[in-house]
Amino acid sequence: MTARFPIPSAAISATGDIYIVDGASPAKRWDGYASSIKYAGVPAPSTSVTVGSSTSGTIVGDIYAYQRWLDADGRVSNVSPISTVHTPSASTKTITGATNATPIVITATSHGYSTGNTVKITGVLGNYAANGTWTVTNLTANTFSLDGSEGVADYTSGGTAKKGAGQIDYTSVDAPTDSRVVTRQILRNKDGNTSVFYVDKETTDLVSTSFSSTNDDDALTEAVVLIDSDGNDVNLTANAEPPAFKRFVAQHYSRLWLAGEVDYREGAVALTNGSASVTGIDTNWTSSMVGWEFYPRGSSNTTTYTVQSINTSTQTITLTANYAGTTDAFAYYSLKPGDDERRTIYFSQAAYPESFDLNLALTLPEEVGLGDVTGLMPFSSQLYILFESRIYRMTYQNDPSQDGFPFRAASRGCLPNCWVLVDDAAYMMDRKGFWMFQGNNQEPIGAVVQPLCQIDAEVRINFERTDYFHAVHDPMAETVKWFVCINSHRYPRHAVCYHYRLQRWWIEEYSVPIVSSCLGEINGVPQVFHGSTGHRILAPYGTLDGANPADGTVRGTVTSSTILTLTDSSASFSSNLVDVPVRIISGTGAGQVRIISAVSSTTLTVVDPWLEKPDTTSVYQVGGIQCLYRTGCYRLVQTGQNERRGIELAYDPVDTGRLVFRKYEDRSETPVDAEYTRSSDDGNGVACESGSPDYVVDLTKSSGFVANYNDGFTEFRADGVRHVQVGLEFVPNEERIVLHELNLLGCRSR
User: Fold this and answer.
1) What is the DSSP string of 44-100?
2) 3-state DSSP call for residue 342?
3) What's the distance, CA 615 to chain centroid?
4) Cis status of the peptide bond prior to 475, with omega within 30 of 0
5) Which whole-number Å values give the CA distances from 14 to 30, 31, 35, 523, in the listed order?
6) Residue 64 burial by Cβ neighbours in a 10 Å radius (0-12, 13-18, 19+)
7) What angle do CA 62, 235, 89 make, to 5 degrees?
8) Residue 555: which H helix or E strand, with range?
9) pLDDT-derived band of residue 71, with 50, 70 and 90 as boundaries?
10) What's the rounded Cα separation, in Å, for the pair 311 and 286?
């Protein structure tokens, strides 16, 4: 079995994105809609640009530059190291005179300047008013005047005149290789100011290493403040990626918080005395582990080594020093970040969850018996830092780096991922057992299952595998479940369950490992999802059930069939569709669902025979999940006049999709048949057939709005239809179907 990481930690940020960390690979972000998870943050360029200039123009002064990168959403990286200073000059002349007059006349032999040139003058002594940037007027071959100037004293000595450049040239510009980067920016300052820089060059060219700009200071408008008025770093180092070596994440007051570390001990290693090379056996080392400390376990090994590099393909580590212990072909080991990281907690900029200033990390308290950080828990407006044997609460007002302080909140701790929040309480598990925390008090709750925590018990929790423990709250069952390893199991196959309303306990056993769990929803109903081996999710999930649209065709029209097959000659089915359901969503055989038993590129074989064989009118959906909805019962408006009645539906248009609505009268379970036949091509997006109850909505209609009207007259005192309901039915494909409004015209709720 391939070695695994501990269970990741996840948090939903104030921006609505899900952030996932595992402590051994870069933090990841998922927006809940995309088909893939992306790395969080934006990598930064590592080298400084080289600044030069050319041609004549109005760009003068001491110029510095940075480069930085942006992702597709406009997130920015840290800036690169600053360039060396460059002073643009198309021509430099030595000044020998500056008249005390209006305007000041400068003497510089063979200056070559023309009327209208921009010239910067520095170093004039005596008549210091000549220093600055000026537009000049050519007087003679050796003199020129400074437009708008006025002398203040006699010239004594010194001075240099530099004519402005017309173009800034940037070379040695880093070319990114990370797919997150879609835009590059080069920032430069205006003459002499190094606190505020401006975007001088922005490009989606990710290959070129040389760029030029003709922007003078007046043309630079997009400011990037690097140092604020109080001297605080705003954009120099404040946009680092989330640190990859933190295991737990939480969102609190619009900031993302990261803490805890991984002590990676999966598999074993082969060690050779005198060699800096270490070979992994059943390991899963990542490039993020470079710089971590490597500790070979054993009585003869007393030295800690630092990881210099990792070959992730061959699972080989190179240490910064040769291994000095005993040669061992199968040794146990420990691999983790340095000791200085054990008590370090990081936080993002407010409202920018992917921008971290790694220089502003907080140091957590050192206490005997405290243990390692095991989690971050936002609870009752506070952020709690969980340790193995204690709980601390983080307090701060505005800036955690200035006024943040942790203090003890409870004398018991929590195992990693073994806490859940229910109403006004947190239910937790530590090595002593199970307990409840309410912010100001703690209460043990697991006396009946306490024997599981005893080391000499016949059936006991294996605390050597706590990295894979986790807890989940099932609100529908009013139950908290702690998934643990019992006895010798490597991964959790048991759950210790607590019904918090009835205060009852029981143990559940599963036929497969349950390696992760979370709470979600299906059709608006809370639903617990379990992750298992083989990338299986043991609950309905997404718009399709078990089918990945990226792997091949999931929707189409049948070209032929047999009693046990369905063929689409234009399809390209994935072999991963075995055990996935296929549904006939329209045409002949509509409503039938079968499980796929075998797949070829264009044919699906199903387990059970079709009751009605699909034909060329049949549209199928692989992994289609039928969605049903029915409104409440609404009273028809009865005024004795002809009333405008009907149904209006607003939705997000999709590329392929249909929806069926049906009308029900007076609480009947049988829908009313349409009285006429109409095609959706008629323009209103709704098709119906006389004698059928199905009104078929074309969800590809670009307006996102369809309507079906049937004006009617009901005599107030006459017997007749009084109430109406509408039912909706649809089967999504890979596109999410979003319905915004369902309006019933001519009805009232009471």
Assistant:
1) ---S--EEEEEEEEEE-S-B-EEEEEE-TT--B----PPPPPB---SEEEE--EE-S
2) coil
3) 44
4) no
5) 13, 12, 21, 24
6) buried
7) 15
8) strand 555-557
9) very high
10) 8
Alpha carbons 361 and 309: distance in angstroms, whole number? 25
Please count the other Cβ atoms lying within 10 Å of the Cβ belonging to residue 453.
19
Give the span between the Cα atoms of 284 and 2, in whole angstroms. Answer: 7
Q: Measure the CA–CA gap between 548 and 35, rounded to whole angstroms.
A: 9
Q: Tell me how crowded residue 326 is: count the other CB atoms within 10 A of its CB.
A: 14
Do 104 and 158 touch, CB atoms closer than 8 A?
no
Q: Which residues have a Cβ under 8 Å from the Cβ of 169 and sit 6 or more positions away? A: 51, 52, 53, 54, 210, 211, 212
Instruction: Give 235's DSSP letter.
Output: S
How many Cα neighbours within 13 Å face the side chain of 25? 17
Q: What are phi and psi of 681, to 5 degrees?
A: -70, -10
Burial profile 404-442: b = 16 or more Cβ within 10 angstroms, e = fewer: bebeebbebbbbbbbbbebeebbbbbbeebbbbbebeeb
> Residue 667 corresponds to which tokens in the numbers above?
């609480």
pLDDT in tens, 118-162: 999 999 999 999 999 999 999 999 999 999 999 999 999 999 999
- Among the listed residues 79, 75, 70, 2, the one whose alpha carbon sits nearest the alpha carbon of residue 46: 79
Asked whether the predicted pLDDT for residue 540 surpasses 80, the reply is no
* CA–CA distance, 238 with 241 (Å, rounded to integer): 9
Q: How many angstroms separate the first and last alpha carbons of the chain?
A: 63
Place of tokens 């240099």: 160
By the 8 A CB rule, do 531 and 515 touch?
yes
Q: What three-state secondary structure class fits 611?
A: coil
Q: Tens digits of per-residue pLDDT, 303-338?
A: 899 999 999 999 999 999 999 998 999 999 999 998
